[in-house]
Write a structure and sequence with these properties.
The chain is an alpha/beta fold and about 250 residues long. It has one domain (about 5-235): P-loop containing nucleotide triphosphate hydrolases (Rossmann fold, 3-Layer(aba) Sandwich). Helix content is about 30%, strand content about 20%. It has seven helices and eight strands. The strands form two sheets. The chain has a five-stranded parallel β-sheet with strand order 5-6-7-3-8, with helices on both faces. Strands 2-1-4 form a three-stranded antiparallel β-sheet. Helix 3 (about 105-115) crosses helix 4.
Length: about 250
C-alpha cells in the first residue's frame, strides 16, 4: 500500500476561489484561486502593486471581493464573521500600536482583549527577542523591533490561522533567521497554516508553497512537512513553477 493512501489528507483551512477586486479601472485582484491546508506555510509572491495585500485582506475578511468566494476555517469571512476573529491572527503590512505604551504594555493590552493573562505577554517577548525592550515605548523601537512586536500581538491569543503580510521586510538577516526559527517552533508545537506575502526573490525557507500571484512573475512551488500529493498552486495555475523537496 502506498504512503499516500495511508496518510489522511489534512483539512483545508483556507480556500480562495476565483476572487476579483477592482478599484475603478485598476484590477487589484483578478481571478485568484488557491488552498492552504492545516500546518502549512504558504507564500504569495509578486512585485509591488500586484495585489498580494488585497488578496490577504479579502481572505481575512477585511475587504469584500467583487466576486469569487473565500472559506476560512469552513466559514465565509465576509460579511464580517465575529466568530472567526478569535481564531485568526493578523500581522498587517503597516504596524499600528496604542500610543505611549511600552512593548510589554502593548502585548498585555492585546492579551486582555482576549481574556488572557500577562504571562502570555512575557512569554512572547522572550520568544521574539524583545525582553530587553519590554519597558521601552513603542515609539523608540526600531523598524525591525516593531515588526517582531506586531507578530507577537498577532500570536497573543494562539490563533488557528496566522496571516503575515511581509513579516521579514524590516528585519536584518539574523533577526529574519530568528523569526523563521520561532515560527517553525510554533508549527512544531501546534501545526497551523501561515498565509503570507513576499516580494519575488525573497522567499523564506519556511514557505511550503511559494504561490505566484497572477499579476506577478512565475515562481517555484514546494511544501514543507507532511504534504498533499500535489501543490494546490501548481494544480490551479496550470503547472506554473515546479515542485521542490524541502
Amino acid at each position: 500500500m502506498s504512503a499516500s493512501s495511508t496518510t489522511p489528507a489534512r483539512p483545508v483551512a483556507l480556500a480562495v476561489s476565483d476572487i476579483r477586486k477592482h478599484y475603478g479601472d485598476v484590477r487589484a485582484v483578478d481571478g485568484v484561486t488557491f488552498e492552504v491546508v492545516e500546518g502549512e506555510f504558504f507564500g504569495i509572491l509578486g512585485p509591488n502593486g500586484a495585489g498580494k495585500t488585497t488578496t490577504l485582506e479579502i481572505a481575512e475578511g477585511l475587504v469584500a471581493p467583487d466576486s469569487g468566494t473565500v472559506r476560512l476555517l469552513g466559514r465565509s469571512p465576509w460579511p464580517r464573521d465575529e466568530t472567526l476573529l478569535p481564531r485568526i491572527g493578523v500581522q498587517l503590512q503597516a504596524s499600528s500600536f496604542f500610543e505611549r505604551l511600552t512593548a510589554r504594555e502593548q502585548l498585555v493590552t492585546f492579551a486582555a482583549l482576549y481574556g488572557i493573562g500577562t504571562d502570555r505577554a512575557d512569554d512572547l517577548l522572550e520568544q521574539v527577542g524583545l525582553v530587553d525592550k519590554a519597558d521601552s515605548p513603542v515609539e523608540d523601537l526600531s523598524g525591525g523591533q516593531k515588526q517582531r512586536l506586531s507578530i507577537a500581538c498577532a500570536l497573543v491569543h494562539d490563533p488557528e490561522v496566522l496571516f503575515l503580510d511581509e513579516p521579514t521586510a524590516a528585519l536584518d538577516p539574523q533577526s529574519r533567521r530568528n523569526l523563521w526559527d520561532f515560527l517553525q517552533g510554533l508549527n512544531d508545537h501546534r501545526p497551523r497554516p501561515h498565509p503570507r506575502t513576499r516580494h519575488p526573490g525573497r522567499v523564506d525557507p519556511l514557505v511550503g508553497c511559494a504561490h505566484p500571484h497572477p499579476s506577478g512573475p512565475r515562481g517555484d512551488h514546494g511544501r514543507r512537512g507532511p504534504r498533499p500529493d500535489r501543490c494546490a498552486g501548481c494544480a490551479q495555475h496550470g503547472g506554473l513553477g515546479r515542485h521542490r523537496d524541502p
